[in-house]
Structure formats: structure tokens, C-alpha cells
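RETRY 2/3 - previous attempt timed out on the joint model. Re-submitting the same 857-residue input unchanged.
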Amino acid sequence: MKKSKLLMIIGSFLLLGLFVFPLWNITLEAPQYPIPLGMDIHINKFTDTHEFDIKNINLMNHYVGMQYIPETIPEFKIFPIVIGIMVFFGITIGFMGKYKLYMTWFVLMSLLGIAGMYDFYLWEYDYGHNLSPEAIMKFTNPDGSVMGFQPPLFGSKDILNFTAHSYPLAGAWFMFTGMLMTFIAFFVGKREAKKK
Amino acid sequence: MKKSIISMFAIAVTTSLMVSCGGPKSKSDRGAIAGNAAEKVYVAPGEHDSHYAFISGGFSGQLAVYGLPSGRLFRVIPVFSQDPEKGYGYSEETKPMLMTSHGLIPWGDSHHPDISQTEGSVDGRWVFINENNTPRIARISLKTFETEEIIEIPNSAGNHSSSFVTENTEYVVAGTRFAVPFPQRDMPISEMKGNFKGALTFIKVDQEHGHMDIAFQLRMPGFNYDLSHPGRGKSHGWFFFSTYNTEESNTLMEVNASQNDKDFIAAINWKKIEEYVANGGGTKIPAKYAHNTWNDDEHTAKTVMEDEVLVIEPSEVPGAIFFLPTAKSPHGCDIDPTGEYIIGNGKLAAQMTIHSFTKMLKAIEDKAFDGDAYGIPIIKFDAVNYGTLDQPGLGPLHTEFDTRGNGYTTFFISSEVVKWNIKDLKIIDRHPVYYSVGHLMIPGGNSRTPDDKYLVAMNKITKDRYLPTGPEVCQSAQLFDISGEKMELLLDFPTIGEPHYAAGIAAEKIEGNTTKIFKLDENTHPYRVTNEAETKVVREGNNVHIYMSMIRSHFSPDNIEGVKVGDKVYFHVTNLEQDYDVPHGISMIGANTSELLIMPGRTTTFTWEPKAVGVWPFYCTDFCSALHQEMQGYVRVSAKGSNTPLKYTLDGDVPGEDEEL
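RETRY 2/3 succeeded.
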């Protein structure tokens, strides 16, 4: 089998890692939490980093009027279907061996990824800013506006007594690696086509 | 660098203290400076001690947990006495733990903690401890650091030569200090001699859960059985008990029980007796004793009143029990790590008796006996004795061991600890203690593998050692470094109650296994709630059951109406937290009981019988969160016979009936 085909098929296949490993992690550190609180985000669920972490994050957050992290969100139904379709699609065009389609796949997947991140950002924004009017403690920024508690999209950020960390986990690395392979597949495929 | 700055600071402080105080105290402080003691006991903020020390609270009835080398007190585990701080013995769930055949007893006298063993080494599963006054043995979990089981010992009185374990925790023993009628009966005290008996009780320990059951009781002659220790290694299968009052006197015993120059160490081949029992030996006799067990899923204790016990007469198992003559009223009866030397700490003698296990076996084989006592062969002194340690000090009480062949013995009257070599019977070092030392402890000291860096001496009297606090001053422990040739005094630290006896263990054998929370979904308490929607109030005649929850930072329900004077109100309170170190407490104005302190995931109950109409508040007693002060509620109490309807709410809604909850 041609190298490009192989790269495309394996690259698409690697996306299945998202069904096994968590995609993202948010961790909250504070002095009174020597073992930090954490939440892993999968494509179909939220899970505790350590048992009961989400319950305890909710308990912390209720003091400033933040909403509870929901049991499930609509995205958890959509994401697995989208990923499933893209894997099927990628493997199919891999076998077909049309390298131009590889780039189409890659661009489409990138757009979907960006859309996913944007969706995540919107959720985070709402989570950090849509506060209960009955919040026990109300904090304001130096300019007088209501303080938000949005965790960072990527990286680390201090929020009151907590430091919030937001970083990709294994599932995401499977996806990035897979996508990178499909991207390379396009150029390898192009070179292979020229040689003919 | 940091360390040296700290130690220099410590030296400066100590030096200035010496200059300002002067006097006799400088004697002990000088040793500390020379050895840089401050640095050796300094555990930096946030760092952990290397060892746990479980020091009995003596007449407090409890067991205290300290760290070594810092001497910091971490926890007082309630065992035999009520503890209002924790609600132990007050809550409906824990009251059965203090039940006995005499009814609920709110106090006990805790004596000798001993850690469970596997293959002759302390293993960190459980601590056993005896209650001296109303004979009982408790088992404490080293996962939860809570008392899980208490078993009463029938036919015993002054449960003192207890609660030591065999080298695989096959048995924990309980020996009687008082000779008493066995079984109890009405008879003249003056007819004691020959008629009173001494019960030595062997309690089988279930290896999975630790559950205790009395396997058999030996009906021994009516001596006083003072202390005991198990054989180990080559002597595994034997148990040794010291005796006093072999005179069998019943009055002015300080004189009359101190007439014989030699008393006995009783050597008991429990394996032989175990075999006899397995073959159907012994006689079951009626005996009433309480067996209390705690269940961590139900979060509740229950009492079973047992009604018989298996009794064995020494004459039934020939060749299983022998007496070893031992210098005057031995207190401690200690076995070295190899299992070869049996040491009698002759409290009222000018010497210590060291017997040899090998010689004992040979003497038994050769029948080198010097008569018998009530049919039990007395082995000839010379046939069993390895040697004596002459003039070691005054009033030897207890010996523990290092791994280098040395014994460390406390001397009560001369207030000192003496280090001596067992083989050579030579004294190596002696160090004064302040004052009147009772027992001492080397972590793992009662095992084949002592962890021989530290020694803790436990003193009965402190006099001028600490700031005075009126007529009653603290008792204390003293920490020594025994890693060198000379013992080095490192630290004094005060203790709770009387630091009667102790057991120690390396922290690594325990610290990773401790329970952090109880899981709500494993809670099977009949009055538990798993979420706020399940909270409710139910009336059953004059009993009102409140199924209440607590979580940062409110109770549910927190407004209750319809309670009447004459009702008995049960607060069944579940802590819904599932986070480490987030207990909540609860107390009700006028309740004739203690607060409850409730760990995450646990359900606990107290009762309240309101005596006057009004609106009465309750609140959280443990500072739980930033909103702790707001964690409070009200109960409205109406007149007897009034028709105020039963009503309970949180934030105006009935829990469970509003979707938003």
C-alpha cells in the first residue's frame, strides 16, 4: 500500500482514541486542596479526576453563584457522531487514495475542531459569568464590573484563591497526531502522484 | 544550611534559658545541647513525623496518637470513655460500644495498646487495648482510627496482663490481675486461698476483619497475673505471664503479697491447648458478657450479650503449663526479639531474672521440677535461668529491645532507664528520667523486628518539669535517641491522662491506608439520606424522626414545626459531603447530650426531648466553611396536645417536592 494511503487511514483511525481517552482537563489548585480538584472532559461525558471532584467543585463554586456542572450537555450526543463520521470518512477516502480529498478532510476536521473549541469557550464563558443573583459572595473587578470566574481556554490563570489549569489530555493528542498524519498524507500523496 | 540555622537558633534559645533558669534543670538540658537534640526532634511545618506512637490514656480510658520524633498530639481515639467532643458514647449509634453485662459504663481505664502483627512484625492493621476496671479488650482500626470492637472478659477482674498479641495475631490475650471466684459466687473473702482463681483468656482474631471471639479461658491458680508477652520466633506458640501475690493474700496486700522472695512467670503452650480445644476439649460454662461491634456501612454499633465461655483446667492439658520461679513480684514479663530470653522485671527485687527458652524446653524434657503449685510443675530455678542482672537499679518494671542484643529497662523507684546487654548481662548506660518512669516503648519493641531509633519513657510524675497548673499537673513522656552507644534524651512532651503504656510503628505502614471519607452510596444506616430531596420529618406517636442532611453550609430541613412538648425528637443527621476533612457538627439548645461530630458520608443520631414551648435553634458546631456561622436552623415547639401541623422546609420549600432542589 502507498505511504500516503497508510498515513491517511492510520491518521483517521487515531481519532478513535477520543472514545477511549479524555480530551481535556481542568484542574483547580488552592492551598487548602493539596490534592487539587480536577475534571476530565471526554467527547461524551465529564468525569472526576479524583472521585467526587466535580461534586466538590460545585460546592466551591456555589459560594460565588456559579451554576452546577451539568450531568450531561447536548454536545455529548453530537461529538461522538461527528467524530464517528469523520473517522469513517477518512478511512474511506484513505482506501480510495484520492490525495486531494485528504486535504479536504483535514480542513473540514480543523474547522470542526475550531467550532468545538469555540463551543467550549462559550460554555466556559457562560459558566464563569452567568452567576446567580443570589450569590453568597459577590466580587467586582477594579473597574466596578462583576467579576467573572471563567477558567482559561488553554493555559493557567489565577481566579481568587484558586489557580485554574486547562490543558489537553491523551484523547486530544491522539486527535492532533492523527490530523497531523492526514495533513502529511496529502503532501506525500501529492509527491507520489508526481512521480507517476 | 537551613537546618543549621535552625539548630543554631535552638542552641541560642536553650542557652539563654539555661542562663536565665540555672539550677538543677541545666543538667538535663546540657545533654540536649551537646547532641543537638532540637534538630533531631524538629519536624518542619508541613512535614510528617517518621513514626506513630499510640500512647494509652490510662485513667482517661482513651488512646492518644502522637508523632515521633516531634511528640505532637494528633488525635485522642475514644475507646472506653464517653467523649462529648466526638459524640462517642452519647450518640445513639455509639452507645452500644460502651455496653457491658453491668449496663452502659461511661468510663474505663485503658492500659496496654499492642499493634497487630504478621510474621512477628507490627503490620499496622489494628491496635488492641485493654480496659482494666471492667475487663474488656478493644480493637481499633488503623484505617479509621476508630474503635471497631469491644469484648467484655467474664470471670476476670482487673484486666491487666492484657492485650498482647501473638506473632501472627492469632490471639490477643487477657489475663486477670485480681484472683476472684470463678465463676463469681457469694463466699467469705477470708476463704480466698485455693478458692479464688485467675482467668487467662485467649481471644481468637479473625484475620480478615479482626473480629474477636473468646476461644478459651484457662482457670489458673488464684495468683495475680500482672503482665504478659508472647513467645516469638523459636518460642512462638508459647505465652508468658508474670504473677505476684503467689501468697494468695486478700488484705494489706502491699505487705502480705510481698513476702515470697520469688513469684512465678507462667509459661503457657497455647498451641498445645489450641489443639486440645480443636479436639473438643474443655467445658462450656454459663457466662454473661457483652460483645460490641461497630459497622462502617451502617455507621452503627450493636451489642450481643454472650451467654457461655469455654473453660479449661490446667490439669486437663498436662505438659502445657509451667511455672518459672522469678525474683520478687515481677511486673513486666518481656521476650527479646529472638524469642530466647524471658525477662522478669522483679519490681521488688535488687535483680532482674533472665530465663532461657532453650533451657526451659530442656528442663521440661528432663522433668527438672521443684514440686508444683496446684498441680502445675515449677521448673527448678537453675534449670531455666540464664542469669541475673544484679543491682541494675531500683524497681525494674518493663524491658524493650533493640536489634543489637540490648535490653532497655525502666526503673520506677530510681527514676531511670538502663541499657544493658542481654548476653553479657552487663550494664552499658543509664539515664535519669523525670520522674518515676513506668513503661517504655521502642516502636515494634514487642516484635521480632524492633525499629530501634527511638525510645519513649512514660513517666507518672512531672512535679517541676512544666509550667505549673494547680495541684493537678500533666504526666509526660520523654523521647530518647537510642541509635548510638549512649542513650540521648531529646524531648519531653506532656500526655493526656496517664501515659500508661505505648506501641509504636513506622508511619509508612499506616499513612497510605487511612480512610478519608465514607461513601454515601455505601451508607446503609436505616435513617440515612443520600441527597436533600430525601430529607423529611416523620412522626410515630410521640417520637419524631428528622431525616436531616448537612452540606456546606446548611441543614435540610432547617425550619421544622409541629414538634410538641413531651415528644422525643430524633435528629438522624447525614453529612452529604464527600470531601476529605469536611466534618460538620450539630447541637440543639437544651438537648441533654453532647454535640455530634459527623464525618463525610456518615449518619449519626442524637435525641432531644423539648421541655418548653418556643422556637429553639440548632447550629453547626465544627467550623466547616466561610458560611459556617450561617449554618443554623429552628425547631418550633408547641404545647402538648396543640394541633400545630408537622411541617419542614428549606428555603420555603418542602425538600424533594420542588424540582429546583
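The mean pLDDT of chain A is 93. Closing ticket.
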